[in-house]
Amino acid sequence: MAATLKTCVFTVVKNTTAQQGISKFINYLTANAPSRLLHQDQTHQQASIAEPISRPSGRHMVTLVPGDGVGPEIMAGVQEVFKAAGVPVDFEEKFISEISPNTSSTLMDVVESFKRNKVGLKGIITTPTFFKGGVLQTLNMRIRRELDLFANVVWVKSLPGFTTRHNNLDFVIIREQTEGEYSALEHESIPGVVESLKIVTRKNSMRIAKFAFDYAMRHSRKKVTAVHKANIMKLGDGLFLQCCSDISKLYPKIEFETMIIDNCCMQLVSNPYQFDVMVMPNLYGNIVDNLAAGLVGGAGVVPGESYSSNVAVFEQGARHAFAEAVGKNIANPTATLLASCNMLNHIHLEYHSKLIQDAVLKVIKSGKVCTQDMGGYSSTSDFIHAVVNSLP
């Protein structure tokens, strides 16, 4: 490039002294280009998009947390599919549970495994409804905070061949999941009066907003919708909304809009096609995740994933342990299978990911093997075997 530039300049400038001066200037620009790039404006550097974790060739170690309810049954099916597909992954299994503490690993043992392997596949850990003393933070909350899993991503996409009320849906819900109403800061000030604190910080609001816009850029999405209740919680949700607005100015090619959470729920069931990428605080995200999952078939078909700067954890998008189905062999493994495919993409095993995903979609599209939630009579085992038989 520098040589071409020199030729063009020298054809215009005939003076030898001028030629030498221009030559020195061009050489300086060429030599210092990398250093100039390193000293770009800090805002533009922060707007860069992180790549998935790069892993060495050979076999990959992945942390596996089976979870409660039907989690262990479904994870056994996933391992069967992986074995049949020849996926070069070894699982480091860590069972942790809040309702079965006697057989549970310690929190730090699980956290260290995630940190060591950088990636994990996780079932749903049941959280008891009633407080019986002890720590208010649930195991799920403590794992997310120890790993700083600040961003939860749920891709809501209609499955080919599985007809629901709304078809051809394709949008993404991004949720901040380390603060908000899930701060576990509650106390009974006087008998019969409980105060519960909702924590919103500029740091985490800016971080999740930037994550949402980066995601939109990377996946060629056109619009980001910030969901809030700033008309009532003017300071807390107002801060979140302001952070989203500030970040949006760095991405002029992406449309930005805001929507109040109650209107958002109505719009989701009446016209979900208007959404592309949605970003919201913790509690709203939990509600919208489950509502949106119902639009495309329920908790059994929607995958999810959570990210920190160093760790990625893949699980169901709608978090239900389905304890009432334990031992009945009726749970739908689609969500966990698709989450495992996303995990394989993340560690650059794209070939095996596509192999399994194509097999899962082929089984669903045929309509011959459907679990009860999909309107059929097939068992979990039937579905897993059908996927294995659909592998090339």
Detailed description of the structure:
It comes from Lymnaea stagnalis. Keywords: Mitochondrion, Transit peptide, Tricarboxylic acid cycle. There is one protein chain. The protein is built from 13 helices and 12 strands. The protein has a 10-stranded mixed sheet with strand order 2-1-3-12-11-4-5-10-8-9, sandwiched between helices. A two-stranded antiparallel ribbon has the order 6-7. Helix 8 links the parallel strand 8 (223-228) and strand 9 (255-260). Helix content is 43%, strand content 16%. Residues 1-19 and 28-50 have low confidence and may be disordered. The two termini are 48 Å apart. It is α/β, with parallel strands linked by helices.
Give a topology summary.
Layout (H helix, E strand, L loop, with lengths): L1 H11 L3 H23 L3 H5 L13 E6 L5 H15 L3 E5 L13 H11 L1 E4 L16 H9 L3 E7 L12 E7 L9 E5 L2 E4 L5 H17 L4 E6 L7 H13 L6 E6 H10 L6 E4 L1 H14 L7 E5 L4 E5 L17 H13 L3 H17 L13 H11 L2
Parallel strand pairs: 1-2, 1-3, 3-12, 5-10, 8-9, 8-10
Antiparallel strand pairs: 4-5, 4-11, 6-7, 11-12
Helix pairs in contact: 1-2, 4-13, 5-6, 7-8, 9-10, 11-12, 12-13
Order of the strands making up the biggest sheet: 2-1-3-12-11-4-5-10-8-9
- Please give the count of helices: 13
- Listing every helix as H and every strand as E from the N terminus to the C terminus, the arrangement reads HHHEHEHEHEEEEHEHEHEHEEHHH
Cα-atom radius of gyration: 25 Å
Alpha-carbon distance between the termini?
48 Å
Main attributes of the structure:
NAD binding; alpha/beta; Isocitrate dehydrogenase [NAD] subunit, mitochondrial; two-stranded antiparallel sheet; Isocitrate_DH_NAD; oxidoreductase activity, acting on the CH-OH group of donors, NAD or NADP as acceptor; ten-stranded mixed β-sheet; magnesium ion binding; 13 helices; 392 residues; globular
